[in-house]
UniProtKB/TrEMBL annotation:
Name used for this protein in its record: NeuD/PglB/VioB family sugar acetyltransferase
Keyword Acyltransferase: yes
Similarity remark: Belongs to the transferase hexapeptide repeat family.
Record PANTHER family: ACETYLTRANSFERASE (PTHR43300), UDP-N-ACETYLBACILLOSAMINE N-ACETYLTRANSFERASE (PTHR43300:SF7)
Top-level taxon of origin: Bacteria
Source species of the chain: Geomonas subterranea
InterPro entries to which the protein is assigned, alphabetical: AcTrfase_PglD-like, Hexapep, Hexapep_transf_CS, Trans_hexapeptide_repeat
């Protein structure tokens, strides 16, 4: 039975704990940069890299140790940095797929992805590293999703959509076919995106439009 350690001690950790509960993966520790109480009874929390290293130094036995990064939202770059931190310590990064999720036989899924309850990753989809496909989100055929992207609950990507690295797609958003979402862009909850979104901007509404900064001239 492989042992599992998660970096992150908020809601995403609870979601991943539920995902592995009853499986052959046993959650043995949480790591967080804050000195807070563990949100999961009986599972210890270690503070920062120093706490993780003390935990690793004190481990006994030959159980395989795997890791997951329970950091969601628009923090994809942080998620990949923490994945690399785990890898540097010899901690493998599996993909987590909920028992109720669907993944097509020919989907290509990068390391450390999280495909949560009732999500769908359809034919010929490619996911990069550390992608989160949250509860009931879906990616239709031939989608390409870059490293560190997070699709919020219920988000819908139609066929042939491209989402570049570190973008965030909000809860219930809909991306129409053959649209590209640029790197680091944010799509607001419930938005309907009908055309390409430039890198680094935030779009909201139906149809989605760039949200202007306060005081900016349209």
């Amino acid at each position: 039975m492989p042992d599992l350690v998660l970096w992150g001690a908020t809601g995403q950790a609870k979601v991943l704990f539920d995902l592995v509960h009853g499986s052959d993966r046993r959650l043995v520790g949480l790591v967080d940069n804050r000195d807070i109480a563990s949100p999961i009874p009986g599972v210890p929390l270690f503070v920062g890299e120093a706490g993780l290293d003390r935990f690793l130094h004190g481990r006994s036995g030959s159980e395989t140790l795997i890791g997951g990064v329970a950091v969601g939202g628009g923090r994809g770059a942080d998620r990949l940095m923490l994945m690399d931190l785990f890898k540097a310590r010899g901690i493998a990064l599996p993909t987590f797929v909920h028992r109720t999720a669907f993944t097509a036989f020919n989907a290509v899924i990068g390391e450390g992805c999280q495909i949560l309850a009732q999500a769908a990753v359809c034919a010929n989809v490619t996911l990069g590293r550390g992608v989160i496909v949250n509860t009931a989100a879906s990616i239709d055929h031939d989608g390409v999703v870059g490293d560190g992207v997070h699709l919020g609950p219920g988000a819908r990507l139609a066929g042939e959509v491209t989402v570049e690295a570190f973008a965030f797609i909000g809860t219930g958003a809909v991306i129409l076919p053959r649209v590209t979402i640029g790197a680091g862009a944010m799509v607001g909850a419930g938005a309907v995106v009908t055309k390409d979104v430039p890198a680094g901007v935030t779009v909201v509404g139906n149809p989605a439009r760039v949200r202007m900064k306060e005081g900016a001239t349209p």
